[in-house]
């Protein structure tokens, strides 16, 4: 394979190697590898016609859209930095993203809602259909492989999402390293119900380009009730999954007794699977091997298990990616011996460039930047065995995983407080014996009204399933919310909703 330097080199090489084989499928719409490459060149010309130049930002506001992969590659061709934002990001959260990244152009499937917000932030907004016109462009590399090509927004310890800056070199290396471990094949049909705003959903496109596999982009219903039918319809051989999707698959397979799937591989990211869920998955889909993964947006993947490697090393989340290094450090920054718990610190070409417009946070998480590669302090704690396999123990901040997505408790609390009529809000993240997050709110609103009003503040997948309304928050002697008392109130919800005195 020729040397790959820029993100669009992935699609150009795929067009040469796999040509007329299908690359992207969404419902009845399809594109071959050659068509994706050609479309990305045309769209690169369209972006230039719109006045975008090297370093400008482009926001794609969509969960899944057939044009998104081509637009990502098009932006790469002309040096534009692209950010994909989930279609559920609206109102206050969308305004935050646009204020933060200052795009020149927003492309959306919801123009009536998005255009006024974009225009108030100094950005033009167009519908995806507007991209149907425009000329082809053939141009040499714009910039260098160390230039930023993508901003990936992720929850953080602040009240609103932050953007991880990803360069061409980092993204290409990460994609190739992940493919080296997962080994997608040219005849694979990869089904992903994950939105392209989620980095692992986006990387399915890159893995397909590297392997020649065809990537089927699902929609929201195909991550839940429609999952089994989608896997059968697409004749999927690979499922890119998160725990909530995996649990749905198990339930659906049990209802479809006797109906077989073609899956040969299931990958898991987003959060760890319990041993019971893993056993149920193997019983439900005996044809599929399982690869467990552990990662952060800041480095894409920390580690990946070999296929079914968890059978030999229960509890492990795998080995570091090829060409990378992970160590566990104590509080003084000293490397720990195998079996000793410390903070995972990651080094390698896949460690991203830092946070967009967050110098203090970048300094905190990427404190050493004087070597060949940045050093990422993950905030995740665990240990390594003598063979270098990682075992996850926990986090030090308020980030948690809900339905496979990273969520910040601070962000959820801030969104609840923005609801008119809510005086105080405290979120309890999932913990031992508590599968999902729960929100406590001091308000005269009903629990349902609070959760409904939050839909205009943050993405729906970040809104907790449960809200408990209180007259007042219990406080510690230091005047802080007493989370232990709140946790003790998390009894099963009564009929009629959660309201407590």
From TrEMBL:
Domain AMP-dependent synthetase/ligase per the UniProt entry, residue ranges: 12-356
UniProt name for this protein: Class I adenylate-forming enzyme family protein
Organism: Streptomyces eurythermus
